[in-house]
């Protein structure tokens, strides 16, 4: 019997990933100290969120204990930030006696979403649907692929029919470029249940894209970080999504060299939610009012539709920062409404499938009774 499949992020993890919280954080401090000694010209992204609060405390404690040089800290302001986060950034800088430089994008989130579109469900789904909208490839190719006896031949024929559309074809047909079926990976449309059927029945009337993240965060970060030897970020595997998927510069973590010769240090990668809770209590870390007062469990980009709790979180923010909530609805409103429609569609489909399964089981039970 084959064992359960586990990705390299799990199987190649370092030994300290399985330590309890106190020992795990001691190991992490040793890693930070070692890498800062080797690469003292380091820059760290600080978002004002809970992961960043744990990370900055770890770095500063390590620097003090090992007499290490200062780390450059930077906060990326997308143009849609809660006042609670901005105030917390200032308070954190004062607490540790450091500078946290504020950087803004050349194209803010309002202009980026107007020009390219708004996110929907996830970054992967947004990228796939964005390309589908641009290429105009019919959803019916998925049926062609599914009904084909020789799927590899059908995949080659689709490539000839729709040149320069490799990723879109794979996305819609839930396959790879060799024509092999890949229905259960994150990079295909049905990684979100019934999505292909939903957009066929209710095509989006707005432009979908996750490029706002590229323009408001990634490009700014690349510009600011390019002159540093080491980049420190607070990514954690427990956050899920793309951060839990192995990639070329991110397998066993937490220290890797990039193609351009820089180094990436992700000290928190194997820190679990319970580890974070222990650290917060043990060192009396206070998160921003977004957590401590508003009641959010994650911050990230304020109002981003990729969060399944975006609308719920905005309602928590509303009593304190109504203008931010209004701005988020103006920017992302169509995506919020479309996701509500998708969630309802998914609920009805799942209920119908359950009812059909139950009816079939009841029928089989009746046959068994009659035969007995």
What can you see in these coordinates?
The protein has 372 residues and is mostly helical. Among the domains are: 8-106 and 212-287, HUPs (Rossmann fold, 3-Layer(aba) Sandwich), CATH 3.40.50; 121-201, no CATH class. The protein is built from 15 helices and six strands. The protein has helices at 8-11, 21-38, 50-66, 83-96, 109-116, 123-135, 141-147, 151-161, 166-173, 195-201, 211-225, 273-282, 289-292, 310-317, 322-371; strands at 42-45, 72-76, 100-103, 230-232, 255-257, 263-265. A six-stranded mixed sheet has the order 3-2-1-4-6-5, sandwiched between helices. Strand 2 (72-76), helix 4 and strand 3 (100-103) form a beta-alpha-beta unit. It is globular, with a radius of gyration of 24 Å. The two termini are 35 Å apart. 34% of the residues are buried.
What is the topology?
Elements: H1 8-11, H2 21-38, E1 42-45, H3 50-66, E2 72-76, H4 83-96, E3 100-103, H5 109-116, H6 123-135, H7 141-147, H8 151-161, H9 166-173, H10 195-201, H11 211-225, E4 230-232, E5 255-257, E6 263-265, H12 273-282, H13 289-292, H14 310-317, H15 322-371
Parallel strand pairs: 1-2, 1-4, 2-3, 4-6
Antiparallel strand pairs: 5-6
Short description:
It is built from 15 helices and six strands.
The Cα radius of gyration reads: 24 Å
Strands in their spatial order, largest beta sheet: 3-2-1-4-6-5
With helices defined by DSSP (H or I, 4 residues minimum), what is the helix count? Answer: 15
Oligomer: single chain
Count of strand segments: 6
| Topology pattern, helix = H, strand = E | HHEHEHEHHHHHHHEEEHHHH
> The CATH topology of the domain at 8-106 and 212-287, please?
Rossmann fold
Overall geometry comes to globular
Instruction: Round the mean pLDDT to the nearest integer and report it.
Output: 90
């Amino acid at each position: 019997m084959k064992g359960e499949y586990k990705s390299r992020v799990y199987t190649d993890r370092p030994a300290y990933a399985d330590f309890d919280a106190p020992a795990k954080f001691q190991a992490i401090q040793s890693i930070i100290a070692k890498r800062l000694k080797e690469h003292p010209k380091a820059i760290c992204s600080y978002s004002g969120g809970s992961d960043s609060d744990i990370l900055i405390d770890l770095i500063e404690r390590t620097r003090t204990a090992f007499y290490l040089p200062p780390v450059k800290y930077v906060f990326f302001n997308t143009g849609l930030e809660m006042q609670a986060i901005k105030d917390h950034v200032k308070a954190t800088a004062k607490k540790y006696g450091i500078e946290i430089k504020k950087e803004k994008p050349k194209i803010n989130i309002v202009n980026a979403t107007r020009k390219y579109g708004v996110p929907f469900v996830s970054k992967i789904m947004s990228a796939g649907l964005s390309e589908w909208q641009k290429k105009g490839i019919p959803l019916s190719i998925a049926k062609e692929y599914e009904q084909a006896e020789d799927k590899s031949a059908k995949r080659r024929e689709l490539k000839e029919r729709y040149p320069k559309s490799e990723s879109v074809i794979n996305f819609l047909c839930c396959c790879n470029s060799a024509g092999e079926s890949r229905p259960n990976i994150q990079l295909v449309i049905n990684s979100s249940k019934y999505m292909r059927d939903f957009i066929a029945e209710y095509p989006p009337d707005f432009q979908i894209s996750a490029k706002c993240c590229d323009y408001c965060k990634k490009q700014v970060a690349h510009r600011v970080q390019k002159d540093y030897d080491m980049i420190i970020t607070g990514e954690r595997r427990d956050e899920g999504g793309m951060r839990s998927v192995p990639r070329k510069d991110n397998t066993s973590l937490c220290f890797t060299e990039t193609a351009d010769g820089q180094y990436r240090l992700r000290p928190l990668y194997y820190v679990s939610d319970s580890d974070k809770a222990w650290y917060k209590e043990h060192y009396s870390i206070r998160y921003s009012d977004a957590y401590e007062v508003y009641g959010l469990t994650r911050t990230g980009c304020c109002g981003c539709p990729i969060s399944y709790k975006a609308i719920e979180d905005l309602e928590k923010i509303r009593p304190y920062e109504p203008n931010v909530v209004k701005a988020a609805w103006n920017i992302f409103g169509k995506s919020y409404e479309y996701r509500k429609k998708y969630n309802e569609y998914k609920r009805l489909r799942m209920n119908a499938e359950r009812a059909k399964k139950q009816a079939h089981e009841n029928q089989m039970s009746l046959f068994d009774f009659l035969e007995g």
